[in-house]
Amino acid sequence: SAPGRFADYFVICGLDTETGLEPDELSGENFEQTPLRRTFKSKVLARYPENVEWNPFDQDAVGMLCMPKGLAFKTQADSREPQFHSFIITREDGSRTFGFSLTFFEEVTSKQICSAMQTLYHMHNAEYDILHTPPTNDKESCSSTGDCNGTSVSRLQRFNSYDISRDTLYVSKCICLITPMSFMKACKKVLEQLHQAVTSPQPPPLPLESYIYNILYEVPLPPAGRSLKFSGVYGPIICQRPSTSELPLFDFPVKEVFELLGVENVVQLFTCALLEFQILLYSQ
C-alpha cells in the first residue's frame, strides 16, 4: 500500500544527445517549417526513484505529458521564460496520478546538436530557394522592382534562422513531480525554487539532491483537514488538505479560468454545467 508520501517521482525530460534530433511524429509532419519552429522528440532522461510498487512508472505517458509539444529550440533572440503546466494520468481502474511540470530553456553544449541544427537550416534554405526561385523571364522584373514575392518571403524565412558562428542555441527541458494528490501550488513552488537554484550564480544552502530526497522520502501527505509546512530551497512551502466534510481538493486559481476564457464564456460554461449539458473544451 502507498505510504502516504507527498511525491512519488521526480522526473527530468529533455534532449537525449546520444540519439540526436528526431522528428516528433505525434506533432505531425512539419518539414515546411523552419528548423527552429519544428518539434523534436523528447526523452525521459532520469527519474527518482526508479520505481515504486504502488505507482508503477509509465515512461511513455509521463514523457508525452511532460513535454506535449516535444522539444523546442530557440536562440538568444527569443523569449525563454519558464512555463508551468499540470496533467493527470488516469489508469484502467480509475485511479489517478497527478503531474506538475516546469519547462525551461538551457544552452545546448553539444557541438553535434548545434551542427545538426545548422545542417537542417542549410537543407531547408536550399529546398526553399528551389521551390521559390522565380522563372528566368521574371528575374529581371523582380530585380528591377524589388517586389518579388519569393525574395520577400525568403528574407522572412531567414529572419528566424540559426547561424552556428553567431547564435547561441537553447533547448527546452522539463523537471516534473508525480504526486498522488493535486497540490498544484506547492508543487509549482518546489519546481520554481529548484530551477532558481540551478540558474542562480550562488549555490543553494544545501546540495540539490538533498532537497529532492526530502520531497520524495521525508515529506508526508497531510492528513485530511490538516495543513503541512515543509522547507523548500529558498523558503517554506505550505499545502492544505480539506477534511472529508469539505469540498474536494481544488488547488487551481479560478482567476486563470477567467483570464483564459473571459467572463462571458465562463458564465456560459457554468450555465451549461447547471443544465447538465455535455461540455467539450478544445485546445491546441
From TrEMBL:
GO terms under cellular component: cytosol; trans-Golgi network
One annotated GO biological process: retrograde transport, endosome to Golgi
Domain UDENN: from-to ranges: 24-284
A GO molecular-function descriptor: guanyl-nucleotide exchange factor activity
Keywords: Guanine-nucleotide releasing factor
One family name in Pfam for this protein: DENN
Name of this chain's protein: DEN5A protein
Biological source species: Sclerurus mexicanus (tawny-throated leaftosser)
